[in-house]
Amino acid sequence: MEKKKVMVAIDESDCSHYALQWALDNLHHTILDSKLVIFTVQSTVDLGYIFASSYGSARTSLSLSPELVVSIQERNKKVAVALLEKATEICSKHQIEAETLTEVGDPKEKICEAVDKFNIQLLVIGSHGRGTIQRALLGSLIMVGIDESELSYDALIWVLENLKESFKDNHLFIFATQSLTTAVLPSLGLAHFHFHLSPTMDLISQNQQQNMKISLGLLEKSKRICAKHGVKVKTFTEGGDPKMAICKAVEEHNIDLLVLGQKSKGIIERALLGSSLSDYCLSNAKCPVLVVKKT
């Protein structure tokens, strides 16, 4: 049976090495049964020109000589190699062997490409954070965001199976958002027509009550799953845009780690739909974010 693959993406920031250390401390048993990949990206060199502001406040376009381009490329490669060597040493202290990889390009694109190319089941990325990333993770507050998709329950089960020791002295937080009230006319044929209507207060109230029931049902299902694993939980729900509501809940409850489920998206789907909930939370949540991807 082929081993699962876990990838930790690192750069020169402290938070990326913190993410690696966190993974080794909290996912040790998972990593022992998996293949660990350490990945870093070498920045590209703009071959056309760079902007310099050394002449007063003016921005001057300077041509890059071939020698300078080569020098920058070599420097970036040395930095990448040094980062991977440092990461390998950290892994060795935990008796973990890691495969190291580096590519040149835009970090966001190259990391996503590597996940698809090497069939990574779990990607760990350090958040630049906003003051909370240095918290100790033992005894931490972990929150799982759930919705009606099976992916969110896959993420919950993954947490229960892999992070139980991290919150053994605390409750596991589970959060569900209630959808905003919208007015939608029934479909005609294959087309759906959405209109800006002024729904009555009764209709708004009915929709809100229905959304509340759905959220409470999701949370009850989560409680039953956690009970089977002997885990105590705290559940809560709020209305509003899921992305903003989750980030708000993270801040209000001083969450140390947010866990979300995510489905694989093709290039066209990403282009049409834009950033996903997990993409938004990775950029805006004030804590590290762990995304469990369904492969």
TrEMBL record:
<dbReference type="InterPro" id="IPR014729">
    <property type="entry name" value="Rossmann-like_a/b/a_fold"/>
</dbReference>
<feature type="domain" description="UspA">
    <location>
        <begin position="142"/>
        <end position="293"/>
    </location>
</feature>
<dbReference type="InterPro" id="IPR006016">
    <property type="entry name" value="UspA"/>
</dbReference>
<dbReference type="InterPro" id="IPR006015">
    <property type="entry name" value="Universal_stress_UspA"/>
</dbReference>
<protein>
    <recommendedName>
        <fullName>UspA domain-containing protein</fullName>
    </recommendedName>
</protein>
<dbReference type="Pfam" id="PF00582">
    <property type="entry name" value="Usp"/>
</dbReference>
<feature type="domain" description="UspA">
    <location>
        <begin position="4"/>
        <end position="140"/>
    </location>
</feature>
